[in-house]
Here is the input.
Amino acid sequence: MQSGAADALAVVHEYILVCTDCPLHLKRIQAVPGSGPAGARIMAVGEGPGETEDRVGRPFVGAAGNVLTKLLESIGLRRDDIYITNVVKCRPPGNRDPEPAEMEACSHFLDAQIEIIRPDVILILGRHALARLLPGAGGISGLHGRKVVRGDRLYVPLYHPAAALYQGSLMRTLEDDMLKVRGYLDEAEARRRQPVQAAPPVAHAQAGATKSHSPAPPSASPAHAEPLLSLVAPEPGEPVLRLGSPGATEPPTPPEPPSRDQLSLF
Ligand code: URA
Here is the structure.
């Protein structure tokens, strides 16, 4: 299953590299899809590539990247174990904020990446990623360091690492928030280690009509238990994730932003 996720992620990356869906492609050196393993339990989502990222083709490799790496290491995580990406995959010229239309044009890529990786925790780096991933949830100053559960996803908004470069006092806040992230990860890990509950056997409704369910093998990660390549090879009639190919099919209908009470805060 793991190689299915890696293959699906590689396909998404290929689409990103040739995407021309918004004007950001005109000034880029290259698109920056993301980096890290498809089996990562943690995903970090930033704003958009900067100058160094545009040149190197990898996210968070400039000054903000150094801060991010140190923060991850401060709680015993290796950067290479984390999948890192951005809301927009091409550099906004002069490092300006990404525009709503640019974020919208890129959104199906981020959705696909999250769907494939299904991480235990998504670290939201800064206000643009927060607005994109948790619209209507509130501002970064109120949410930073808190667990936000939406559906089966767990998010932790954090100040953007670059903010700590400009405002030194935020570094302490980021470090404190990372300690909380360590705690959330430990909880998620403990949950994952709990034995899988055996599903009750399905009653014999009609002879031969149903098979009894076997429980999932304990070693199978529920995160990757579903077919991943259906993202790029949907059944006829299923909604299609538009991955930016020429002549691409319908874009997915954007989900309704959740109301505040659909979000659980901890
Ligand atoms: N580098 C990135 O890749 N993303 C950011 O948001 C900032 C720097």
In short: The beta strands are 42-46, 83-86, 121-125, 148-150, 153-158, 264-265. The CA atoms of residues 124 and 133 lie 8 Å apart. The radius of gyration is 20 Å. Residues 203-266 have pLDDT under 50 and may be disordered.
